[in-house]
Amino acid sequence: MTTISASDVAELRKQSGAGLMDCKKALQESNGDYEGALDYLRKKGQKIAEKRAEKDATEGCVATASDEAKTTSVILALCCETDFVARNEVFVALADRLVKMALEHGVENVDQLNALSMDGMTVAEKLVEQTGKTGEKIVVSEVHRLTGNKVSSYIHAGSKIGVILAFKDGGKAGADEFFRNVAMHAAAMKPSILHYSEFDLEMVAKECESMQNQIKVENEDRTRLGKVLKTVPQCVSRLQLTPEVMKAAEDAIKAELAAEGKPEKIWDKILPGKLDRFVADNTLLDQERCLLNQFFVFDETKTVEAAVKGFADGAEIVAFRRVAIG
Q1: Confidence at residue 45, expressed as pLDDT on a 0 to 100 scale
Q2: Contact 323, 150 (CB under 8 A)
């Protein structure tokens, strides 16, 4: 039987990243042949990957990379099964290496990234190799790329949530910090689209009915507890606030003011605030899912859209991508 030295095992471990016992076993099975041992470890990784294929990879880390000109940014999620592996330095370094490769090679999706060459194999094969080393399923679940006049990025503490943002700065100083704050807002508030105009009207109608029913149920509990009831919205998105709906809302407000005995000559001062309140009460879906239509966490008196317009003429959010793990 071939004698396997400690230095041989250490060298194989250095090159492969596999555990000491796995490296020793690989060298024994290959009779001390270094290339044969590497092949053994790859096949072991493939077998483990096949066994773990149906497992949920709900842990991991998010990584971002931007070019020197700050006009292109990439974000990806490298996923595994446990937080123990996700916090490992080797795992985090792999995520950083992959996102830089994606940036360099113009990658726009997971399939393109998996097809790239890495250490003499494809990225997909490299991830299988890593699965063999950790004993956990390891996959890239998302890759997104944005290009614009300027880009910003933000990774939340713990590296479970990340955002990239393409924007126009309007030529004003301080834009990098301002739009990084917008990216932080997106990380915290979980928008899924940029603007309500991206919604499908049929979907909005279904969400409206669901939200109305939910608030009605909540109000039943509030009634029993003697709490103030929530307003049941007529609508949930600006997509539904047609001129006819707004006209009806204005007429209802005027009728209410008349019933309260408010002089008609002061209605013009009262109407704008009440109409703003009506819009706020009837755009809950926009506030939940649309970045521009959410109230800005750094100035809750304004929507993100209003904050951007107030920052500088010509300032604009062009696109964003938010990635979250778990």
Answers
A1: 66
A2: no
64 token code pair? 């971002």
Q: Spell out the residues 6+ positions from residue 317 whose beta carbon is closer than 8 angstroms to its own.
A: 165, 166, 167, 179, 182, 194, 291, 292, 304, 308
Distance (Å) of CA 285 to CA 124, 228, 236, 289, 301: 38, 22, 5, 6, 18
**Residue type present at position 292:** L
d(Cα 250, Cα 273) in Å, to the nearest integer?
A: 11
Query: Could you tell me whether strands 139-147 and 161-169 are parallel, antiparallel, or unpaired per DSSP bridges?
Result: unpaired
Q: Which residues contact 109 (CB under 8 A, 6 or more apart)?
A: 143
In the chain, the largest separation of any two C-alpha atoms, in whole Å, equals 104
pLDDT, position 235? 96
**What is the end-to-end Cα distance of the chain in Å, rounded?**
48
Type of residue at 199: F
Q: What is the pLDDT of residues 46-101, one digit of tens each?
A: 666 566 666 778 999 999 999 999 999 999 999 999 999 999 998 999 999 999 99
Provide the token pair at 157: 């503490």
Half-sphere exposure of 302 (CA within 13 A, CB side): 12
Exposed / middle / buried, residue 234 (Cβ in 10 Å: 0-12, 13-18, 19+): middle
pLDDT of residue 236: 97
d(CA 323, CA 77) in angstroms, rounded, equals 7
169 and 312 in contact (C-beta within 8 Å)? yes
pLDDT for the residue 48: 60
pLDDT for residue 9: 73
User: What's residue 5's pLDDT?
Assistant: 79
Helix (H, G, I), strand (E, B) or coil at 299: strand
Distance CA 69, CA 184 (A): 21
Q: Which domains does the chain have, with CATH numbers?
A: 6-52 (1.10.8.10), 55-147 (3.30.479.20), 197-289 (no CATH)
Three-state DSSP at 239 gives helix
Query: In sequence order, which ranges of 53-137 are alpha helices (DSSP H)?
Result: 83-86, 89-104, 110-114, 123-134
- Give per-residue pLDDT as tens, 247-256: 999 999 999 9
